[in-house]
Design a protein that fits this description.
This protein is of the alpha+beta class. It has one domain: Alpha-Beta Plaits, CATH 3.30.70.120. It contains two helices and four strands. Strands 2-3-1-4 form a four-stranded antiparallel β-sheet, covered by helices on one side. The longest helix is centred in the last third of the chain and has 11 residues. It is elongated and about 55 Å long.
């Protein structure tokens, strides 16, 4: 399993999430379209040659964005990233991918089996 986190402006929040969910990401057991999202402030300065969706080259820009986090199965992570990039309005979408450990790989004495 992986955790995928990405940043997206509010104007494209639902469409980008829908594309990523359609790729098979965001499934936990018998649930789909699972994520956590948090609103915040993003900042960037497009360099010369950039084609920014928001702002202009050389000017520091600040924009309301959402950070969206979700889990993704190993066999779907490449499709999820491709869907994110295709649906995202930014020329260079910001995202992170982390491999997750399974509970089975953690020491048994750390968990109470109730």
């Amino acid at each position: 399993m992986y955790k995928l986190a990405f940043f997206v402006p509010e104007s494209h929040l639902e469409s980008v999430k829908s594309a990523v969910f359609a790729s098979g990401a965001g499934r936990i057991g018998d649930y789909e379209a699972c994520c956590f999202q948090l609103r915040g402030q993003g900042q960037f300065r497009p360099l010369a040659g950039a084609q920014p969706h928001i702002g202009a080259a050389g000017r520091l820009e600040s924009v309301e964005e959402y950070r969206v986090e979700l889990v993704c199965a190993d066999d779907r992570i490449r499709a999820a990233i491709a869907a994110l990039i295709d649906a995202h309005p930014y020329e260079e979408p910001a995202f992170d991918v982390w491999p997750l450990s399974s509970l089975a790989s953690l020491p048994k004495d750390r968990f109470d089996e109730r």
